[in-house]
Specification:
With 319 residues, the protein is α/β, with parallel strands linked by helices. It has a domain at 2-184 and 219-248 and 286-295: Rossmann fold. It is built from eleven helices and 13 strands. It starts with a strand and ends with a helix.
């Protein structure tokens, strides 16, 4: 199968590309290596893939018709996995126009190129942030998502709704995957687990926003990638639109996450209490009943084991 992965040099994208190559697919990766974090990190993510004859890197932007056409022209792309986006809740509050431009305009360009090249299978990376500040219980795909609390979440919500209309335009399969706090090796350095680990090893204070009781449904990278693979392989009728949660279906408090980092690193964290940040949600927890039933998705890596693996990677690659 010939597959285009946008944002394929990132944390999730690079590991998805590796898995797809191992499965015998031909993979085309589009990434613009922007300066949101050090571009050399992404280039290092692709270092082994660049040696593989079935992997092609196209350096370009999803907002560019020329770059997207370069990915698809003559390559017989069968599936697009659209991961490229401006990420992060807090940065989106500082620069909402950029997030609108990349995440909304860029996704519309991806849809247009799918139509132009008759690509009938589109997987779109959404986020648990679309659920907003729901209190308690697990988050179901049928829940109300009309009250986002950040520009980033709004861009994802907006494109979910637009893609519902596009299923008829593409005459194929449109799958929305709502990721729940993915972590593991290669995680972006600005995300909490990676950032906190760096501070622990450097002997610097960890900023703890709120009272430590905020909680997240942390999902190990291997489980997230497996969920994407199963969405690609999902057999369904044309003009189908489905939303799936990809989470672990359990919550870990911020204080518990820090405790697991301390155990795995055998180091003590220095805590620096801070007020809650605008745009942050209090709680996330995925209901994965639908993903289990239709995709066969079944996360395997418990949080303590995932943190242990992350610390091993960090000590090998980041110290």
């Amino acid at each position: 199968m010939n597959i285009l992965v946008t944002g394929g040099a990132g944390f999730i994208g690079s590991q998805l590309c590796e898995r797809l190559i191992l499965m015998g697919n031909k993979v085309f990766c589009l990434d613009n290596f922007n300066a949101f974090y050090d571009p050399s990190i992404k280039r290092n993510n692709l270092s082994q893939l660049m040696l593989h004859p079935e992997f092609t890197l196209i350096e370009g932007d999803i907002r560019s018709d020329v770059d997207l056409d370069k990915c698809c022209r003559g390559n017989r792309i069968e599936v697009v996995v659209h991961l490229a986006a401006m990420a992060g809740v807090r940065p989106s509050i500082k620069n909402p126009a950029l997030y609108k431009d990349v995440n909304v305009t860029g996704t519309m360009k991806v849809i247009e190129i799918c139509k132009k090249h008759s690509i009938r299978n589109l997987i779109f990376a959404s986020s648990s942030s679309v659920y907003g500040n729901k209190e308690g219980g697990s988050f179901m795909e049928t829940d109300d998502v009309d009250h986002p609390v950040s520009p980033y979440a709004e861009t994802k919500r907006e494109m979910e709704k637009f893609l519902y209309l596009c299923r008829m335009i593409l005459k194929g399969k449109v799958i929305i995957l709502r990721f729940f706090t993915c972590y593991g090796p290669r995680q972006r350095p600005d995300l909490a687990i990676h950032k906190f680990t760096r501070l622990i090893y450097d002997g610097k204070p960890i900023p703890v926003y709120g009272d430590g009781t905020t909680s997240r449904d942390y999902t190990y990278i291997d489980d997230t990638v497996e969920g994407i693979i199963r969405a690609i392989e999902y057999k369904t009728a044309p003009n189908t639109y489905e939303i799936f949660n990809l989470g672990e279906s359990q919550t870990i408090k911020l204080s518990e996450m820090i405790s697991e980092l301390e155990k795995a690193s055998e180091r003590k964290a220095i805590l620096s209490p801070q007020p809650m940040q605008q745009g942050d949600v209090i709680y996330t927890c995925a209901d994965i009943t639908k993903s289990k039933e239709l995709l066969g998705y079944n996360p395997q890596v418990a949080f303590a084991e995932g943190i242990r693996r992350f610390i091993e990677w960090f000590e090998r690659n980041q110290l």
